Amino acid sequence: MWSSIDKTVVEELSSIVGEDQVVFGVGRVEGYLLDETPLPIRPEPCRDVVVVKPASTEEVSAILRLAYRSKIPVFPRGGGTGLVGGCIPTRSGIILCLERMNKVTVDVDNMMAEAEAGATLHDLIEAADRSDLFFPPHPGDEYAQIGGLIACNAGGARAVRTGVMRNYVRGIEAVLPTGDVLRLGGKLIKDNTGYDLMQLIIGSEGTLAIITKAFIRLYPKLPFSITMIIPFDSRSAALKTVPRILRTGIMPLAVEYVERIPIEVSAARLGLEWPCKEGEAFLIIILAEQDEEYLYRVCEKLLDVCVESGSLEPLVAERRDEQDRILRIRSEIYTALKPSMVDILDVTVPPASIGLLMDKIDEISRSYNTYLPAYGHAGDGNIHVHIMREEGWDTAIYDEIRDKVYSVTLELGGVITGEHGIGFVRRRSLLRFSHPIYIDLMKKVKQIFDPNNILNPDKLLP
Amino acid sequence: MWSSIDKTVVEELSSIVGEDQVVFGVGRVEGYLLDETPLPIRPEPCRDVVVVKPASTEEVSAILRLAYRSKIPVFPRGGGTGLVGGCIPTRSGIILCLERMNKVTVDVDNMMAEAEAGATLHDLIEAADRSDLFFPPHPGDEYAQIGGLIACNAGGARAVRTGVMRNYVRGIEAVLPTGDVLRLGGKLIKDNTGYDLMQLIIGSEGTLAIITKAFIRLYPKLPFSITMIIPFDSRSAALKTVPRILRTGIMPLAVEYVERIPIEVSAARLGLEWPCKEGEAFLIIILAEQDEEYLYRVCEKLLDVCVESGSLEPLVAERRDEQDRILRIRSEIYTALKPSMVDILDVTVPPASIGLLMDKIDEISRSYNTYLPAYGHAGDGNIHVHIMREEGWDTAIYDEIRDKVYSVTLELGGVITGEHGIGFVRRRSLLRFSHPIYIDLMKKVKQIFDPNNILNPDKLLP
To answer: pTM here?
Structure first.
């Protein structure tokens, strides 16, 4: 078995990227081993690894040629913001850390960013802003890196209006396990040149190729925005309002659903107060438009729909700081729940079935006498269900609950993951809840891209 | 070699779909052999074929099981509106005609259509309309069928705002060559369950699987629209205006570019007159919005940008019949040019490079002393260049011109096809203008889906 202390490999890596860009030794590699996966489910990382930090596509290619030849596992690492252990090294191997490849340039005429894999979402947002442009989706933590966002087809709260990463990526440069560089797409709106291997690589979680660069579509800014909290007495009243809003032609930037207990826990953690005294179930709706007058017209129409659907008194935030405060409370829920959490799920159903799904989750919750806080992206049917720690429970019970949540999701025409992907921790579930022919085709696809199985082994494929 | 007169195969097909749904014999199959590919480049169809018309996914599956077992080529056929010979049978085999599978239902709450492969674009548009919903893109001829539109990832004039077919397809049911049925995605906005094989099948031109059904996202109607013709003295003035418009945040439904000669030929063919006396180069811009007042504000802003960019007097059509007349003239160009046409290209470059591309095409045109009419989807960098018939020229010269157009396109960061795909006629070009590693991966992908090479042989893969 290859080991990080194999001197010739370390020497060869040093000769590719420079000695100071190679990190190894227990203790020194510690900061490169984990992601945001909750402790109870995350795999124990293998510490017998070398971290290597290339500065260019040529260096990535040289590293992969070496790894391919010597059959050394390679674990690509972005911002480490994943929730399913997708970048945790599970074997002795190389951690390919892309943080030095962080250039972003903007082509204003084509409204496209050219971003290296290690640039953060924050870098991309800032670069677009400096060019008076805008990256519409907001796929989560701003310290996520572009390569990871694309490899995991990140989603986030704005998919209801603007879609997920896949909809914005127009071209990629990716290095195959052999070291060969593939360039697919470009600064293009249309491309029908053969099989769309770019789409296959998007969402492949680092198992088919290492994405080194991407062309990402930008849009003009939406300078005017309003954030609203719409309280309801009941979950069903809140959730039934969502399709009604969307059918009017209103296109909110985000439609989030939260309930009183988790949102108050989150607010308290931030030393803030949740501003709605009334109601148990809330829609947080962001509107953003090009035109201020139009924004107000849309806002009025939206409030009418909500009142007709039985909402309580809405809270309308127009000032930037007020809007930010609401979104900070919403964003903090995961962190607030994390210490007592076993797992965060991201099941997704047809949007109109969210209410049904949550009722079924309540039934599961009651039958196990546990609390399963659930909230999420109501406009796109994507709900984060949290499995919480209970005194005296073992893995088998948590697994049983997860399987039950997945089963009711599938019965409603849904899927086990809408955002987070499979990573390390969902492989058993993928196998259990997928058709064997689909699994077989995936394995064959993996085989043709990565015959030696060096790229992110133990991930995605069951 | 298997032949259509093989009695047992015909009998077996009849037992699957019923005797009256199996068509064979020279003369009787004639209506199923061609598509819209110009005569000079289209392959000679093989007439030794059996046309079979299944009514269900189960029947498609049974037909493919038979074909797989007996290694019989299968040519899927939709509306026959393709321009690259993608559905023309080039060997003895089965023509799988999906026209009987034409059901469309609309799920209003989820704003999704469930459409069978043989439903036409027209059927989909009508079904959406009956539910007070709207299918935003308009990927070409309304008698194209859903299966073909997805298999070819059809584009059209509205990609600038709404994207191509790929952006609307949320789930598919597809039958593999073995007869196994694969169901991918669903009525879902988000899905990150493993490799996105649905995206791989979209655009695979019937070579990987037979699409039998799809879930297609719909949107609320855009009830208010305006169509404008903006004349300019020169091509460069017209084309430079396009990125300026898009950067203001105006989102036209379509931005088409046409020049005087082809548009007048087209108008004359329809017995109409092109309504602009001034100008040589024209942008046809469609605006459509939810809100009438906002539409007028956008229209004003747009006209300001055009005037600042040096446009001549714009023509603004608000009445439905006036708007339709302009679009009919635009749509007729292909038919008007077809009798004297050798090939219609659909090269695509970064949108801001369209002007450069057209200047380079003019250079090619001058150096061969031939007219290469070009027009197209200016908002998405997709230009239709027509190679016209010239007295005494042979295939070699046409091929040379096509290769030159492709070369200048690639130099500008573009691709040889943005819309029409590879089909039969572009395979040589795909091979010539693609990286060998990409071609190799495509062949391996084909191999894992279709090891016996029965699905649409001689198409897409060089």
So the answer is: 0.97
